[in-house]
Structure formats: C-alpha cells, structure tokens
Amino acid sequence: MTRAVAAQRRSLAGRALKVRSAVRQMDCALLVSVALLSVIGALLVWSSTRTWAAGSPTGLVNKHLLNLVIGWVLFAVVATADARKLQVYAPLAYLASLVTLGLVLTPLGATINGSHSWILLGGGFAFQPSETAKPALILMLAMLLHRPVEGTDRPRGLDVVLALVATAIPIMLVLLQPDLGTTMVFCVILVGVLFFSGLRKRWLALLGLAAAAGAVAVWAMDVLKPYQVARFTAFVNPDVDPRGVGYNSTQALIAIGSGELFGKGLFRGGQTMGRFVPEQHTDFIFTVAGEEFGFVGSIAVVLLLGVVLLRGLRIARMCEDRFGMMVATGVVTWLGFQTFINIGMTIGIMPITGLPLPFVSYGGTATFANMIAVGMLQAIHVRARSFR
Amino acid sequence: MKSPRRTRLLVLQVLLVSMLAVLGVRLWQVQVVRGAEFAAAANETRTRNVVIPAVRGQILDSSGRPLVRNRAALVVSIDPAQFGKMKDGGRAVLERLAAVLGEPVEELRKRIRPCGPNVSRPCWPGSPYHPIPIAQRVTKRQALQILERQEDFPGVTAEVQAVRDYPNRWHAAQVLGYLQPVTQEELDRKAELKKDFSGMDLVGRDGLEAVYDDYLRGKPGERRIGVDRMGKVTGLESQVPPQPGATLITSIDAKVQAVVEEALAEAMRKKPKADGAAGVVLDVRTGRVIALASRPSYDPTVWTGGISGAEYERLMSPKSGYPLVSRAIKGEYAPGSTFKVSSVAAMVKDGYPLKGKYNCPGSVMIGGRSFSNFRGIGMGVIDLHTALLKSCDTIFYQAAYEQWRRDGGIEGKPNPSEPMSKMARALGFGSKTGIDLPGESPGRIPDRAWKKELWKRTSKESCARAKTGYPEVAKTDPPRAAFLKRLAYEHCVDGYKFWPGEAANLSIGQGDVLVTPLQLAVAYAAIVGDGKVRSPRVGWAIVAPNGKVIKEITPPVIGEVPVPAHVRHYIRRALSHVPSDGTAAGAFQGFPFHKVNVGGKTGTAEVYGKEDTSWFASFAPAENPRFVVVVMVSQGGMGAETAAPAVRRIYEGIYGIGRKPALPNGRPPDRPPVIAPDGTVTP
What is the complex's ipTM, to 2 decimals? Predict the structure, then answer.
C-alpha cells in the first residue's frame, strides 16, 4: 500500500520533474515571443470587438482568452511529449483531418462569414478542420519522407509520390469548400517539406513546372470563383472598384497608415471603432495594431513573428533526425507564408486572401493549430537538446 | 548534417529575413512616409460634416413690423445617400413614411427625384448629396412616430427648422420674393458660394430675398460628427456655431401697403375685365418706396416646405394671371395722358412759351391722317395749364408734328433734336430705374434711332415675308394673309422711316411708348419734387444680429429734370387742380381738399384689341408734395373711372380720411427703426 503510494508519488514527482526539465530545455525566446503575441492578440481582439460584439464591453475577448487557455494547454501537452511520439500520431492526426474535412462537406458543415469551412459544436463554438489539417499534414509528410534511400540523404521515389497524393487529398477537400487560402498553405507546406527532404534539384524543378502548368490550367478552366479573380484584379488596381472589392484593401491601408509613427493608442483607433475595415478581429487584425500602436507597435509584432520563425529555423538546423527537421521546416514555411500573406494584404503588397495572422487573430481552431505547431517545435527542440 | 541541407536551410533563412525586411520597409512607407496622407483620409471617412443652417434675417417695414419673419417648423428630411445604399432604393422606407404622413407614396417619390431638363416640379432642385426636406408641415405626433422608430425609418430625420413666415400673406409678395433650394449649377458657377452653402440651403430667388441674399443668408455653422461604417453617429468632434443673417429694414410701410393692396383689389373687382394692376407709393423727398403692389398676387407661404406640383402649376398658368410677375416694375404699358407732363416740359424746353396760348381743335390732320381729341371735342384757344387739366391732345399732336418736320420729316436729318423723346429719357423713361429688385423692365421710348435699329433687326424677315407671304395664315384667313404680306412689304421697304403719326402718338403717351408704373412714379416725383431723378430703393438699412447698422441705403440721384424750377412748379400747379376741377373731378368728388390737397393726372391708354389701360399718377400734399402715388389697372378702362378712385382710396388710407390713418400726420418715419442687441425693435 505504502509502496504503491510511494511509487505513485515517485511517478508523479518524476513526471513533474520531467515537465520542469522540459520547460527548462525549451527555446526560451520562442516561448516568450509566442506569449507576447498571445497577449497582444488578446488586446487587439478586445479593441476591435468591444464596440459591437454581443453588446458587452469586453467584446469577444473572453471567448478569445478561453481559446488561448485551451491553446496553451495543447501546447504544453505537445511540447512535453516525446518528439518521437509525434511520428506515431502522424497517421492518426492526418486521418482525423481528412474525416473532419470531409464532414464539412456533409450537412454537418456550416457557413460562417461566407466560407463553408466550419462544423458547429453547439454553445456558440465552431470547429474549422482546415486549420488543424495544417499541422497534421506536416506530420504526415514528414513521416512519409523521413526514411531516406539507403546510404543517401534523398527520399525514396515512392515516398515522394505518396507525399504528393497525401497532399492532394486534403487539397481536393478544401477546394470543394472552396478555400483558396488554405489550399495555398497546403501547397507551401508540401514545397517546404519536400525542399528539406533532400529531393534533387531537378525533381524540385520538375514539380515546380508541373505546379505552374497546373496554375495555368486552373486559370484557363475557370475553376476560380469570380470573387477570387476580382480580389486579384483589385490587388493589381485597387481603384477599379473602391466601394466593392477594392474597399477592403483601401480601408485597411487607411487604418494602418493613419496610425503613423506611434499610433493612436489602445482603444482609441477611430477607424477600428467605426468598423471601417471588415473582418477586423480575424483576417484584418493587423490593421488594429497598425492604427492603435503605430509603426512602432506594428514593427514590434512583425519582429516577434520574425523571432518565432527564425527560432523555428534554428530548431530545424539543430535537429539531428530527419523527421524532426522536416516537421520544423514545415511549420516555419507554413507560419512564414501565412504571416507574409496576411500582413502583406493589409498593407497592399499581397492580394486579399482569407488567412488569419498566426497567434494574433481571433479564431479558436487557428489558435489551437498554431499552438500545437509551436508545441511540436518545442518538443523537437527539447529532444534535440537532450542528445547533446 | 550534410551541407546541401544546410544550404537549403540558409535559403529559407534568407527568404524569411528578406520577407521581414519587405514588411518593415512597406510599413515605414505606409505609416511614416505617407502616414499624414492616410490620417487625413481616415478623418474623411470617419467624420461627416453636418451643416447647421443659419437663421435667415427678417425683413421689416419702416416701423419695424415684420414683412417676412421666421417660424419654427418640424421638418422631415431624407438622406438620399443612405436611401441609395438600400437594396430597394428606400422604397420600403418611403412607403412607411407615406403612411405616417398620410400622403401618397408617389407624391413623396416625386419630391425627392432630382430636377432635370425632362423632370419638372415637384422635384428636388438642390444638391444630390444633401438631405431633402420631404415634408415641412408635420405635426409633433408624426415627428415622434418617425424619431421613435428610427429602425423603421433609416435615413429619415425630423427636426425643428426655421422656415419663412409671411404675416401679411399676399401683400407685397412680388417685392419680398421667395426662397428655393440652391441648385448645383449655381454652386458650380459661384465658387465662393460653395463654402457658404450646403445643398439644403435656400437661396433668395426673387425680390428682396434675392437682392439682399448675401446679407439675409447668414453663415451656416458646421458640426463635425464621427460616424462608423454604417453611418451611425459615434460622437461630436467639433462644432462651429452658425451666424444668423442680418435684418433688412425696408422703407415699405406695412399699413400703406395694405391700403394699396386693398385699393387695387377693389379696382379689379369693379372691372371684371381687368387682368392686372399695380400701385406705387414713393417718398418724393427721398426716393424711397413706401408701397409697391401688384395684382394678381399670391401667398408666398406656398414656397415654404417645397412647393407642391399643383401649386406650382397654378402659379405658372395663364389662368391665374402670372401672380409671380410684379406689374409695378416688370409690366410695360402705354402711359396715355399721364405722359403729357413730359411733353409739356419738352415743349417749354424746345422754346414754346410756358404762358402762351395754344389752339386745341377737335382734330388735326397729320401725315394725311386725322388725329383727334377724346370724343373729338375742341377746346378753343387755351394755355398749357388747361391743356393738362382738361387733357387736350391736339396741342401736343401739333407740337410733335412741328418738331418732326424740323427734324427733317420722314427721312430725318443728321442729329435730330427730338425734344419729346429726349425729355422722356431725361425723366428716366426708356431705361431701368435701378430699383433694388430683380427683373425690372426698361420700357420703351420710340425715336428715329430706335426705328432704324428695329428695322435693321427685322427687315430681313420682313423682306422674306414680302416675297413668300403668309401661307400658314392664308389657309384659314386669306384677307388677313394678304394684309400681313402688304405690311411686311411696307416694312421691308420703308421700315426705317419715322412717320409723323409716330411722333404725334409719342407726345400723348400712345403708340410704341411703353413705361412701367414705377418709372412713371419716379418721373412724377422728379417733376413735383426737387427736380432730381432718383433711383428708388426698397431697402433702407441692414442691421447685424447684434443691432449694429451694417449699411444704410440711400436712393442715388441719377438725373435731373432739364427745365427750370418755375416750369416744374407750373406743371405741378396745373396738376393740382385735376382732382378738383379736371379730368379726375368725378373720382375725387367730396374729397376733403382742405385737409390734404391732391394733384394728379389721369391716363387712358388705348391697347389694340383690348380694353384701355387705366392710369392715375398723383402726388400729395399738392403744395409741398410728400408722396407720389401711381395706380395702373390693365384693361381697367378710363383713368378717371378706375385708377383715380383707387388712388383716392390710398390717400384716404394714408391720411386717415374716414378711417384710421396709416401714417400718423401723413409722414413716413425719418429714421429706420432701431434694433437692440436683444432683438427688440423701436420705431
């Protein structure tokens, strides 16, 4: 009895010790950056929703904080897990993603804000499978490609084909929603992971050509919806229709630009209060930072995201095993792409695409997916360090 | 770790760093380099300027009584911009609004459509970017229904606004003028107006409201309010209070005006064929206008709150007799015998002896045509005094014929002397008096130069018609077509010639001569007064809201009667017997001349195909004239029969004969009323 208790206590103590040592071994700069971005994100969500959402002075911030708590718990679970276990869970996560993405297309799927990419959970909560599919796809691709041809550093041909197929299936499902932004993210993830799988340059070039041909085919076959084409047209020339598609990018630019050097201060952004920028707490959250925190504040957000990305790259570099390295580079290319596209569209250098800003935008599933991704980075980092 | 992978990691790192750099540079460009520009754009999208209309200045009479004042009214307006954003163009809202206002929805829709070349009233003549007043006579209950259910009435507001009020209804309606929304063309034309105006502003369209618009209008204030994307007000950013307009004090006396209006109405009632009348009362000593009336008139309140289609049609229709047109300043009529004061002065100036005797036969032959007195009665050998008193025509015919011959007859010699038309012009006929009212007519004094000018302008057409004839008339009336063709031929060949009959007709105010009632009053004031021709003024003083006098208006002297004072006195004395012993004796029978002596001259002008124009031009007191009163009744018959009794009524009203006097002691005030800063008026 006492022994059992003692054993249990020992195991508990051991686990606590393990967690503590894991936290100590984590990448501190990455941890702090993500924490700061979470805080900033919460403030911006508060600011952008307090004037209208649900008639409460706190707006959607309570819900966002709950999402963050769940996100951080998920982070803790993943980060303290053994990185090798990720490989075991990869097919499971991937299959779950395919199933949930498929469910969106059934009557269970719901349309929120014009995009049919949700599953309603009740109680005002909704789940967006395309977000969690991103880390799941990374794991799956890394798992498929991590075993090299004997004696070389190159992936096996069959594995590359499998990786292409594994990416094509979720892309098909997402395109049926349709969600162009997520499709692009999936493609970028594939490119990122393939690039670091050691695939020969000539194969990479060939795949690139095939992708370009595919893009031309998509354009020629009118697969894109008219509004998607319109977004690109408006990006090239925003004055074409300033009240229509050009409206978003014009208003986003005005909000950010009017912040000038030091911003108008938290809760003092007139453009934000007047809700001139649509989707301001989600896809266009960066405009709140631009208006209320000014150049100084928005550069800070960019730099924090930069720290996250560069630390992720450092983890990839330090990682000895192929799987961990590919997961890390996959995460970095994904988050980097999404950061650049999201901020770029608010300041008029990228077309408008429905992608949230990592760690900052409102949105439960996206927050969870991002935190899981950072958790994976930390787990890889912890494992890499324990080998030193 | 093998080196190709390191290279690839380095590639990704370079990619990430350059991506961050691109974002940073672009942010610097957007927020710092172009920051001010975007801040200005943000200000523009986030705030909206709301014009606070300035209260328009009042128009007062010479004792401080209001002629035009303001009254608070509940006004319902709609915002066309917000209606435009609605899916159905605001149709549903308009239908609900029509139900509340109890008006057909079609009528409301007509009121808010923009006016255009093919869209006539009712329509919105103002700017398409500003609220359109859709109903200005709204009850409190209706306004509350709209304000309390704003969700049912997006883009509709109800608020208290100052609207024009006319306590004397149709008195002096054409003098006061009216207001209409400023049009986009007016704004475009006058750049400096743009900052003073919003589309909801009204601008004076006629009368004093138009002439003194700059003073009366005031300066609208501006409220800068914050709005959100939906146009919902989020707060007040700044406010500039409006500056109320200045008060215009006129020399019009509301009571005298009422007397004149009454007299004209009575004269029109007596003569059912009469189609218009005008009355002018001038202060002889100053040239100020004490009353200026025109009939038919109308109630200017119809303009308040946007004129309805039916009312506008009525005002513009020939059936109502064009009540917007002031006959006193715009109507041109042959003056008849009232013109003889000019002819007497012209004769004396030309050398005819003032105290001489002249033969007044029943008729004279001029240019092969017989010109006769009224009813062909001869008066024997008389002096000019009697010629005026009894209104002999033939003395003037003969003088005019003699002058015409001296000037070279039909063909004319260079630099003809033309004493009759020259005197008429010196008295102000043939050109605008320059009164401070818009749209004045110049009248017409025919002379040799005018005839040549007219021929130059029309001979081409006449010569063409002389050849082609009038086939369109010939279809129905061949004899008339033949006559017209002959006339065209005559005009083509001889049109420039000044016939002796024309000179003769001018001398007794007939033929081509046309004057306005105001011109006649100005000429009489010059002759019976100090000999100076004054450009009359209705405005007397402009007073700022704080009581300070901005401007005092004095009628300028624009000419002088070119005969010595004793000639003018002679004429005045002759005229002062007309009501007692002359042509107007019937009309003034029983008038207390011992109380106030009245002088005047009747006029009966023949108009082809119509009844005569009835005139009476008068002054009082006859010894030392204070007032000139002119009454004209178009198609009113003889002067003694219609106009003279009307003038008598006016004097009875002014001096209080058998009633309360309109002017105590028969004197208009010497000074304009004083307005204290608190708005109280003391005469």
Answer: 0.91
